[in-house]
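Title: [Solved] Pyridoxamine 5'-phosphate oxidase family protein 3D structure

Original question kept below for reference.
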Amino acid sequence: MTMRLDDRLLEFLRRPLMCIIAGVDQTGRPSAGRGVGFNVLEDRTTIDLIFSGWQWPRLVSDIRQTGRLAVTFVSPADYVSFQLKGRADLSETEVPNADHAARFITAATDELQRLGVAPHVIAPWLTAQGARLARLSIQEIYIQTPGPHAGMMTGAEVR
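Solution (posted by the thread starter after getting help):
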Protein backbone atom coordinates (compact mmCIF):
# COMPACT_ATOMS: atom_id res chain seq x y z
CA MET A 1 0.00 0.00 0.00
CA THR A 2 1.31 3.46 -0.88
CA MET A 3 0.52 6.72 0.85
CA ARG A 4 -0.06 10.03 -0.88
CA LEU A 5 1.44 13.27 0.45
CA ASP A 6 -1.23 15.85 1.24
CA ASP A 7 -1.05 19.61 0.58
CA ARG A 8 0.11 20.46 4.11
CA LEU A 9 3.03 18.04 3.97
CA LEU A 10 3.95 19.30 0.50
CA GLU A 11 3.97 22.84 1.91
CA PHE A 12 6.24 21.68 4.76
CA LEU A 13 8.63 20.15 2.20
CA ARG A 14 9.07 23.61 0.60
CA ARG A 15 10.82 24.89 3.77
CA PRO A 16 14.59 24.89 4.21
CA LEU A 17 15.13 21.41 5.64
CA MET A 18 17.68 18.89 6.80
CA CYS A 19 17.25 15.33 5.57
CA ILE A 20 18.40 12.06 7.14
CA ILE A 21 18.12 8.89 5.05
CA ALA A 22 18.30 5.52 6.80
CA GLY A 23 18.54 2.00 5.48
CA VAL A 24 19.10 -1.47 6.87
CA ASP A 25 21.14 -4.43 5.66
CA GLN A 26 19.97 -8.04 5.47
CA THR A 27 20.98 -8.68 9.08
CA GLY A 28 19.01 -5.67 10.36
CA ARG A 29 22.07 -3.48 10.96
CA PRO A 30 21.11 0.15 10.27
CA SER A 31 22.94 2.74 8.22
CA ALA A 32 22.23 6.42 7.73
CA GLY A 33 23.36 9.41 5.74
CA ARG A 34 22.37 12.97 5.01
CA GLY A 35 20.20 13.74 2.03
CA VAL A 36 21.17 16.71 -0.12
CA GLY A 37 18.08 17.07 -2.23
CA PHE A 38 14.75 15.56 -3.16
CA ASN A 39 11.90 15.79 -5.62
CA VAL A 40 8.30 14.76 -4.98
CA LEU A 41 6.97 13.10 -8.11
CA GLU A 42 3.65 14.16 -9.60
CA ASP A 43 1.81 11.15 -8.17
CA ARG A 44 2.67 12.35 -4.61
CA THR A 45 3.31 8.72 -3.60
CA THR A 46 6.93 8.70 -4.73
CA ILE A 47 9.90 10.85 -3.78
CA ASP A 48 13.40 10.93 -5.28
CA LEU A 49 16.07 11.36 -2.61
CA ILE A 50 19.57 12.55 -3.46
CA PHE A 51 22.57 11.73 -1.27
CA SER A 52 26.32 11.32 -1.55
CA GLY A 53 27.23 7.74 -2.38
CA TRP A 54 30.84 8.74 -1.81
CA GLN A 55 30.12 9.87 1.75
CA TRP A 56 27.54 7.18 2.60
CA PRO A 57 28.64 3.94 0.83
CA ARG A 58 26.97 1.65 3.41
CA LEU A 59 23.66 3.31 2.66
CA VAL A 60 24.14 2.54 -1.04
CA SER A 61 24.88 -1.10 -0.22
CA ASP A 62 21.93 -1.42 2.15
CA ILE A 63 19.43 0.02 -0.33
CA ARG A 64 20.69 -2.46 -2.92
CA GLN A 65 20.40 -5.35 -0.43
CA THR A 66 16.99 -4.73 1.08
CA GLY A 67 15.25 -1.81 -0.63
CA ARG A 68 13.99 -0.70 2.78
CA LEU A 69 14.32 3.02 3.44
CA ALA A 70 13.24 5.75 5.83
CA VAL A 71 13.78 9.46 5.33
CA THR A 72 13.30 12.09 8.02
CA PHE A 73 12.85 15.75 7.10
CA VAL A 74 13.53 18.28 9.85
CA SER A 75 13.00 22.03 9.84
CA PRO A 76 16.06 23.37 11.71
CA ALA A 77 14.20 26.56 12.63
CA ASP A 78 11.55 24.82 14.78
CA TYR A 79 12.29 21.04 14.72
CA VAL A 80 9.03 20.19 12.98
CA SER A 81 9.82 16.75 11.57
CA PHE A 82 8.22 14.03 9.46
CA GLN A 83 9.46 10.58 8.52
CA LEU A 84 8.52 8.71 5.35
CA LYS A 85 9.12 4.97 5.05
CA GLY A 86 8.82 2.53 2.20
CA ARG A 87 10.57 0.62 -0.54
CA ALA A 88 13.34 2.18 -2.61
CA ASP A 89 15.32 1.56 -5.77
CA LEU A 90 18.75 3.04 -6.38
CA SER A 91 19.99 4.77 -9.54
CA GLU A 92 22.48 7.32 -10.78
CA THR A 93 21.44 10.96 -10.59
CA GLU A 94 20.60 12.99 -13.66
CA VAL A 95 20.97 16.71 -14.41
CA PRO A 96 17.54 17.74 -13.01
CA ASN A 97 18.43 15.97 -9.75
CA ALA A 98 21.69 17.92 -9.54
CA ASP A 99 19.58 21.10 -9.72
CA HIS A 100 17.38 19.84 -6.86
CA ALA A 101 20.51 19.09 -4.82
CA ALA A 102 22.03 22.52 -5.47
CA ARG A 103 18.82 24.30 -4.38
CA PHE A 104 18.47 22.09 -1.28
CA ILE A 105 22.09 22.65 -0.23
CA THR A 106 21.81 26.42 -0.71
CA ALA A 107 18.53 26.66 1.25
CA ALA A 108 19.79 24.44 4.08
CA THR A 109 23.11 26.29 4.30
CA ASP A 110 21.42 29.70 4.36
CA GLU A 111 18.96 28.57 7.05
CA LEU A 112 21.63 27.01 9.25
CA GLN A 113 23.83 30.11 8.95
CA ARG A 114 20.82 32.27 9.87
CA LEU A 115 20.50 30.10 12.99
CA GLY A 116 24.16 30.68 13.88
CA VAL A 117 25.89 27.57 12.51
CA ALA A 118 29.30 28.39 11.04
CA PRO A 119 29.84 27.64 7.32
CA HIS A 120 32.87 25.42 8.02
CA VAL A 121 30.64 23.22 10.21
CA ILE A 122 27.90 22.95 7.57
CA ALA A 123 30.08 22.16 4.53
CA PRO A 124 30.92 18.53 5.41
CA TRP A 125 27.25 17.79 6.13
CA LEU A 126 26.05 18.75 2.67
CA THR A 127 27.99 17.29 -0.22
CA ALA A 128 26.65 15.89 -3.48
CA GLN A 129 29.95 14.19 -4.38
CA GLY A 130 29.18 10.85 -5.99
CA ALA A 131 25.48 11.70 -5.92
CA ARG A 132 23.05 8.80 -5.94
CA LEU A 133 19.28 8.76 -6.21
CA ALA A 134 16.95 6.57 -4.15
CA ARG A 135 13.37 6.51 -5.45
CA LEU A 136 11.13 5.89 -2.45
CA SER A 137 7.60 4.55 -2.76
CA ILE A 138 5.94 6.00 0.35
CA GLN A 139 4.18 3.38 2.49
CA GLU A 140 4.14 5.07 5.90
CA ILE A 141 4.25 8.67 7.16
CA TYR A 142 5.05 9.57 10.78
CA ILE A 143 5.04 12.77 12.79
CA GLN A 144 8.48 13.11 14.40
CA THR A 145 8.22 16.62 15.83
CA PRO A 146 9.21 16.44 19.52
CA GLY A 147 6.10 16.44 21.67
CA PRO A 148 3.00 14.39 22.39
CA HIS A 149 2.43 13.33 18.75
CA ALA A 150 6.00 12.17 18.03
CA GLY A 151 6.04 8.71 16.52
CA MET A 152 2.37 8.77 15.53
CA MET A 153 1.46 7.68 12.04
CA THR A 154 -0.27 10.31 10.00
CA GLY A 155 -2.64 9.68 7.15
CA ALA A 156 -3.56 12.03 4.37
CA GLU A 157 -3.71 15.00 6.68
CA VAL A 158 -0.82 16.62 8.55
CA ARG A 159 -1.71 18.43 11.77
